[in-house]
User: Which sequence fits this backbone?
């Protein structure tokens, strides 16, 4: 029989004294002379079940004795209120249905990181990680809803692609029937193609980056939430960013109080993020601040994790860093006369750093064409049948037939979660992170 009752459905005064049954796994087990306490867990919560030797047939007692941690079962019994029980209620067991007694569970809780990687398919059952997954679910749901309710269209761009959207150094190459293809680093170029018909679009896809250095915030595969909007200038984009993220965080706090508490996240801190205006400063100002703090950085150098930490650790709200020097950023960003581009990186506070990279796009044909040449991208070719075409010709075409101002960004879902849930390492935002350690296992 499928499961219809969950533990959270049982934690109710009106069921006290009634017979209940629930399916789940053994979370904790303690034995006394004539009592066995089994704390059962399911996807919703935990509940204590008590088996009293004198109250149950002998075979029920023996079944209870045999269970290992993570064994699977259904317990049936009378619901009682008990303030000593971990969730305030307890089931006085009358019967047990065995699914699997289980074997001694290989994870005790003090394993090193390599052992956890080897056992990750089992490790992910733990309650902290489950709470993290629920927070991620809520963040994404509300973010998506904000855009859908605002009239944005969800689209589904390809993952196998013929050209780079970001630096070519982080491309993963794939053998595509004897030809070179790549795993997508960003859906942006495809989103740009779709704004001419749908105007405001977004997508959620995996993005792949063959990052050379290992850090706490880089994965080789991550979930990329990207938006693109016709007619938007940088200021419009910044406004939408702040509104949509504030909404998603606010709704997530409402919905996931228990989980955030379980992770030890101070919710009052996150409330400030929602209530207060976010900060915006130009790249130049960011460099000035860093230099005044004694950080060794020059105008024209990129902000790395250390610089971002230094810049954000004293702030309680996210910071938009805008107008970077053109050479530091991708070719597609809209240039203004002073050598900077209309872009922003959004840095999360408390030292977390970049969670979004966005810009107004270069929509002037001649300037974009020159930049593609300057970046050397005009040399890249693809074959269609027996024709050879420039890999970026289609992208340039978008500036020939009804070009318009437009802007967009990409948000790393795991980066957002890492900050909102205050996690120490990005690997804990995903069940099966793609890192170089234990790369495809599990
Ligand atoms: P970083 O400087 O941190 O490497 P980036 O400038 O390469 O980031 P973008 O190319 O602007 O990042 O990508 C947009 C967003 O995608 C980033 O703001 C970040 O949230 C996320 N992102 C980029 N690379 C990774 C990665 N390797 N792992 C997880 N998320 C990433
Ligand atoms: Mg990068």
Assistant:
């Amino acid at each position: 029989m499928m499961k219809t009752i969950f533990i959270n459905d049982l934690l109710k005064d009106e069921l006290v004294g009634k017979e209940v049954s629930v399916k789940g796994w053994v979370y904790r087990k303690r034995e006394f002379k004539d009592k066995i306490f089994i704390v059962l867990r399911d996807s919703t919560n935990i509940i204590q079940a008590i088996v009293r030797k004198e109250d149950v047939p002998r075979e029920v007692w023996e079944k209870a004795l045999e269970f290992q941690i993570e064994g699977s079962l259904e317990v049936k019994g009378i619901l009682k209120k008990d303030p000593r029980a971990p969730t305030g209620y307890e089931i006085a067991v009358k019967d047990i249905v065995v699914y699997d007694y289980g074997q001694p569970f290989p994870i005790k809780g003090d394993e090193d990181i390599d052992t956890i990687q080897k056992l990750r398919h089992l490790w992910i059952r733990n309650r902290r990680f489950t709470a993290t997954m629920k927070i991620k679910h809520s963040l994404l749901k509300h973010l998506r809803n904000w855009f859908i309710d605002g009239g944005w269209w969800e689209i589904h761009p390809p993952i196998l692609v013929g050209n780079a959207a970001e630096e070519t150094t982080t491309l993963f190459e794939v053998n595509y029937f004897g030809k070179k293809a790549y795993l997508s680093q960003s859906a942006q170029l495809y989103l740009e193609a779709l704004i001419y018909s749908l105007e405001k679009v977004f997508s959620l896809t995996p993005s792949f980056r063959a990052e050379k250095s290992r850090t706490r915030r880089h994965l080789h595969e991550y979930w990329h939430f990207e938006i693109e909007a016709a007619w938007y200038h940088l200021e419009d984009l910044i406004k939408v960013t702040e509104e949509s993220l504030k909404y998603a965080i606010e709704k997530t706090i409402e919905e996931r109080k228990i989980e955030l508490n379980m992770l030890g996240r101070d919710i009052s801190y996150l409330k400030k993020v929602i209530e207060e205006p976010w900060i915006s400063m130009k790249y130049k100002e960011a460099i000035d601040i860093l230099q005044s703090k004694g950080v060794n950085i020059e105008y024209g150098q990129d902000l790395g994790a250390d610089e971002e930490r230094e810049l954000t650790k004293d702030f309680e709200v996210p910071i938009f860093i805008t107008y970077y020097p053109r050479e530091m950023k991708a070719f597609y960003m809209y240039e203004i006369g002073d050598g900077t581009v209309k872009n922003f990186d959004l840095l999360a506070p408390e030292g977390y750093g970049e969670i979004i990279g966005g810009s107004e796009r270069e929509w002037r044909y001649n300037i974009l064409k020159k930049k593609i040449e300057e970046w050397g991208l005009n040399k890249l070719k693809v074959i269609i049948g027996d024709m050879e075409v420039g890999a970026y010709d289609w992208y340039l075409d978008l500036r020939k037939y009804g070009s318009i101002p437009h802007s967009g960004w990409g948000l790393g879902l795991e980066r957002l979660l890492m900050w909102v849930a205050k996690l120490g390492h990005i690997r804990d935002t995903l069940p099966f992170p793609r890192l170089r350690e234990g790369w495809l296992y599990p």
In short: DSSP finds 14 helices and 18 strands in the chain. The chain has a mean pLDDT of 96. The first strand starts at residue 19 and ends at 31. Residues 77 and 93 are 4 Å apart (CA to CA).
